[in-house]
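One such shown below:
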Amino acid sequence: MPRAHFKKGITLVELVVYIALLIAAVVLTVFVMVEISRSYGKNRTDRLVGIAAETAMERIVREIRLACGFTSLSPLTLSTFASFEDANGATCTNGTGPATHIIALSGGAIQIGGVSLMPTGVTASSLEFTEITGDGAPTKAVRIKMELTSGSGSYQITRKYYATATLRGSYAN
């Protein structure tokens, strides 16, 4: 009985099919990795802006709530500022007269008393204070609007944030 002789190995067609499948798998893997990296960069930048905004807004609102009045209140540019007077009990004095806390936008950083509230990589492009007045009510309130930017290129994110603060010292007026 004759023995069948089989050739071992692969044909050229099989080799081309395997290479094509391998190339498709590599291209798909690279595409997925690039998209994951892009998504991570955007999320990281968005998170950085969100944390910076939350921290800065909480500090600004706290400073305004502790005030009983304001001496200057206008939309901030790079050279203007808003100042709020300290509240000590029901009066605006700290023993030597009103103390003033200045909230400024300078060089892309929001500052209170000269100390920056912005982390590295986040800049403030605008900071506005608007007085809120009611129907003859003596209570004073301030609406705060700020715009923060972080990142560059396709990772750049700009967000606007809003808050309202009622000056506690104005309750007694």
Notes: Residues 51 and 119 are 9 Å apart (CA to CA).
